[in-house]
Hints:
With about 475 residues, this protein is of the alpha/beta class. It folds into 2 domains: about 30-315, 3-Layer(aba) Sandwich (Rossmann fold); about 345-479, 3-Layer(aba) Sandwich (Rossmann fold). Helix content is about 30%, strand content about 15%. The protein is built from 12 helices and 18 strands. It has helices at about 1-15, 20-30, 40-50, 60-65, 70-80, 95-105, 130-140, 150-170, 220-235, 260-270, 300-315, 455-460; strands at about 55-60, 85-90, 115, 240-245, 250, 275, 285, 350-355, 360-365, 375, 380, 385-390, 400-405, 410, 425, 435, 445-450, 475-479. The chain has a 5-stranded parallel sheet, sandwiched between helices. Strand 17, helix 12 and strand 18 form a beta-alpha-beta unit. The longest helix is centred in the middle third of the chain and has 23 residues, at about 150-170.
Amino acid sequence: MKKYAFRWIIALLLAAIIPLSLLAVGLSLPTCFADTYYAELPAMYRRLRQTQGRKLVIVGGSNVAFGLDVTYLEQLLAEQGFGYTVCSFGLYAAVGMPPMLDLSLETLSEGDVVILAMEPTSETMSAYFGATAFWKCAEEDPRMLFSLQADRKSAMAGSYLQYLQDRIKLVRSDEIPHPTDVYSKASFDENCSMVYDRPGNILALGYDTSTPVDFGSVEISGEFAALVNDYCQSARAKGASVYLSFSPVNRSAVSDMESIGVFFEQCRTAFDCTVISAPNRYVMDSGWFYDNNFHLNTAGARLRSFLLAEDILSQLGCYAPLNTGELPAMPEPVRATAETENGDTDSFTFALDEENGVYLVSGLSEAGRQEKVLTIPGSIDGVPVVGFSGAMLESEVLEELTVPASVENLPDRLFARCPNLTRLVLKHTDRPCGISGDTFAGAADLRVFVPQEAYSLYRDGYGCAVNPWTACLDRIYTY
């Protein structure tokens, strides 16, 4: 009875910002995201609200979800006499940082400590707010809506129709997601710590080639800096302390390590809180990562928790050495099983990446430039073909190209010199093929065909990064 009454209290409050007719439709639909990664944010929020005593709150993006061993961090602090309940509060770049600040601020009290740990990207360091993504998170706990600042409440009202349309499509197509991989609610334990086993780096080249990290190009928007500084001031007024640390970054993805000093100085100047970490301390070898340049595997999360404990304890005045005996060794990379060749091997040229034991497509052979229809092989003599070496394909006659699921990413302007290419067939079913913002530059007439069962991955995105396919949905067809 209490749950029923609570549902309608929330409904009445929502009616203040959303037309009643649309709200009624939404309330009549079944839940669509209860089993997904989105649903962990309400659990994190509840842990923040219900924790008694001093909290250590780690606020950021998905690097926090993938990069903290909550129990281990609590243990390291407790062994030095500092009793904190560790609250992981970072989940999804597509939501943005502003709501994470809004939600965590209201739960702070005397003696709490907040660690800000944001990914070094201009998108993260901005006032971006993904209202549609936040609706999916709030489905399980609409109370979160009322902790948002006024301008974000307005954005939520404006995006409700899109969210409602997304839910209706899922219900009508019987495609309500029930994921079983790492991007699911079941990947987290009762302490909001990720327990899904991430045994090693699953990226073919050891890093995500579609999102290189350039510290020197990161821009911290003035609006975001003001937002963070207001947060720091409000937190201090409640008796809490706020410090700045950094997200783990895959060393192999960093284009210029020398620019890290520029980034550090930019953060130190922009944010009104003490910096307790050096960013290069969290630039870690690729073997500690999992599926992108900020997500750690299980062993990497334990190492990051150790490093963070050292930084926090130093700030709190404790310099005693921590026990390194429980730190894991860096795991071996997880190699994907090579696909069968089934392609036009002689029509392409390839470069062997000896370090990772994979092939990259480096171009078309002379014979390949004469063909109208081509298929990239999934492997050559048992060695996987996983991507492109950076060179553009060049053909005046190519009309159709099939790409195997083993290819992880399509680089910038890959098809700009293929004027007659109109059909790109992607074989990926478990996760979408990666693209950049300029992958299809110079290829205005190119249509992309994906398996029917994989269409939702391209439409809704995979994982917790902003979906790069959103701007290309008008190109996508199914087969």
